[in-house]
Design a protein that fits this description.
The protein has 151 residues and is of the alpha+beta class. It has one domain (2-150): 2-Layer Sandwich (60s Ribosomal Protein L30, Chain: A). It has helices at residues 39-52, 57-60, 73-86, 109-120, and strands at residues 2-14, 18-20, 23-25, 29-31, 91-99, 127-132, 141-150. Strand 5 (91-99), helix 4 and strand 6 (127-132) form a beta-alpha-beta unit. Helix 1 runs parallel beside helix 3 (73-86). The structure holds cytidine-5'-monophosphate and magnesium ion. Magnesium ion is lined by residues 8, 10, 33, 39, 42.
Length: 151
């Protein structure tokens, strides 16, 4: 059994899509990033890599490499899950937090859960997803934190 934890943050800017958990959420701003800037998938990927003792996302996908520009973050997570599979491990449970002042993510909850369930090969009832505002402390950022259990 292994447990991993990961975090991520991105600045919000106009003219970018807002990707959360592999879902493009309607928003007037999105994450500034080399990749698609999906903070939740980045935190999840780091959590899996951390559980495996295999470093972090930047070691596997350098953010100054042209090949990673605009890349779908689902590919980063899939890579980490493949590394788990090679070690006869699979994600059994996820607990994650997204911190974002606006937009409200509640309306996208079902879509995000469905997408995460699909990406992780995990029943939605094993995915805990919490949405929080920063209470104005970080209005121009999206942040994510994720804990995973692999077995
Ligand atoms: O941060 P705060 O506790 O005020 O958030 C209240 C509730 O608003 C959260 O429990 C969550 O259900 C919802 N929320 C949301 N989308 C966000 C932030 C919070 O749906 N971006
Ligand atoms: Mg990131």
């Amino acid at each position: 059994m292994r447990i991993g934890y990961g975090e991520d943050a991105h600045r919000l800017v106009e003219g970018r899509p807002l990707w959360i958990g592999g879902v493009a959420v309607p928003s007037d701003r999105g994450a500034e990033a080399h990749s698609d800037g999906d903070a939740l998938l980045h935190a999840l990927t780091d959590a899996v890599l951390s559980a495996l003792g295999l470093g972090d996302i930047g070691m596997h996908f350098p953010n100054d490499a042209a090949v990673n520009r605009g890349r779908a973050s689902s590919e980063f997570l899939s890579h980490a899950l493949e590394l788990a599979r090679e070690r006869d491990l699979a994600v059994r449970q996820v607990s994650a937090v997204v911190i974002l002042d606006r937009p409200k993510l509640g309306p996208a909850r079902e879509a995000i859960l469905a997408r995460l369930s699909d990406l992780l090969g995990l029943s939605p009832d094993m995915i805990g997803l919490t949405f929080k505002t920063s209470e104005g402390l970080a209005p121009d950022h999206v942040q994510a934190r994720a804990m995973v259990w692999l077995d």
